[in-house]
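Re: the multi-chain job from yesterday

Posting the exact lines I submitted so nobody has to dig through the queue logs.
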Amino acid sequence: MSFSADEEDLYQELILDHHKRPRHRGILAHHTHHARGQNPLCGDTLKLTLEVADGRIVAVGHVGEGCAISSASVSLMSESVVGKTLTECQHMFEVFHAVLTEASPAQQLDELGKLRVFAHVCQYPARVKCATLAWHTLRAALAQQEEASTE
Amino acid sequence: MTDLTQAHVPAERFDEWVLAVREQFPVLTRRVRNDKRLAYLDSAATTLRPSVVANAVAEFASMEYASVHRGVYELSERATQRYERAREQVAKRCGVKASQVVFLPNGTTGALNLIANGWAGTRVRAGDEILVSGMEHHSNIVPWQMLCERSGAVLRVIPVTDDGALDMEQFARLLSPRTKVVSVVWVSNALGTVNDVSTICRMARDVGACSIVDAAQAAPHMPVRFDHIGCDFLSFSAHKLYAPSGLGVLLGRAERLEETAPMLGGGHMIASVTFEKTTYAKPPARFEPGTPSVDAVIGLAAALDFVDRFGLANIAAHEHRILNDLQTKLRQVPGVRVLADAVPQRAGAVSFVIEGVHPHDVASILDREGVCVRAGHHCAQPLMARFAVPATTRASVGMYTDVHDVDQLIAGLHKVLKVFA
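And the result, structure tokens for all chains:
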């Protein structure tokens, strides 16, 4: 995978925007699924709540503290999964994880849409867990597991 | 270079001295990320390797390496001599006998675990108290927690003041006849605070407690005179002293080492073995089972020679100047708060936070600028909680750190502010 100089920048505009103005922030008053996640290396913490109806994610709410990569990833993840079926979410998790942890073909990148902005994090191994925390936590919530960790 | 390695290089020749030091570390010529100059400010994590040390290890490995303590042939005797001479070198430097110097794997962590299990483990009982400070590295917390769980002893914590120093008044109040162990860090890896270990050990002794000093961050910056400090045990790590990794040095009072049970059993640490009864060797062999990290010990001897050639006093003076410069410049960066800023004595490290920017992001952007710092909890989660931060960014100095490293860090911080404006 090769990136342009702009794409290689860990702190592209989109990431900074979602870090400074995170979408779907706040715990859902009514939620059907929830999980906590943490990235022990970095100190990122996340509490994720979901409302699932008819096999689709209807609403997402989160609180947490962490680095810009992790908070932007939570925000972008939240935007991406609203309205998706659980199967679609699982697939997105797998693509996201694959793209961040190994070289991926171009079509996988296209599947990511906006999430593509994290693709180059694979070049910074120490930050991969910052980006994947949101998705590990999502998966834990959907599997009705209380805790997720990036370990 | 010889005239630069005298003790107390005059101020007007210090720039030359620093250049001469840096020439010994070839890695400093590397360019990193997008062809940036390498500004290595993570010596508290581990020190860079001088070429004389790397070469000494390579030469030994190629031409002199053989079994130590076991062979009757010349090659083995010579290798053993080199290994034991290194032990004598450490002993002389630290004011102890060779038999009081133990080489073991896993650095200071290994040593602290041995003391907690081998010495304290056999003597601490339910209701006894073990004192550690709130600024300890996990390696000087977790072994004691494990011991307390097994024995029913109680862990008490000496508080840290808002200024990042040990609260000596509270420490005095915590000491009692129930105190069996006081284990304290000399120089904090996270804050850089230097503690008055001589006083701490005297106070421990006064109540009959065993005193232990974690000198991992002290040994690179100041003389370690076991006989002057007055502690029962002290430990430091070779890789923080320009020597290879995988080696810790434990110093102990002869009586304490004699009282210490071995944790690992096997070859060399025994006197005699039968299936009916096995007896153990005397210290230090008792704590050196199996084949030792011979290469690392040889490397440590070379590193100590190297440090002495440049002079520990010169190194300390230079580092002190650089740290002051760093702290002064940090204070001028908007949004930066230095932890333990006003601590009276500092060595090695400075931790800081930037308002609104996570340390991991700070470190990533600094990485882009060629600057190496450590971001995280520094294996001191309780200390981070004490200062109500999830993590800090830490810059730390070694003998090769120069003013350009400091300026490169400061310029990098201004970039951080721009990105997160």
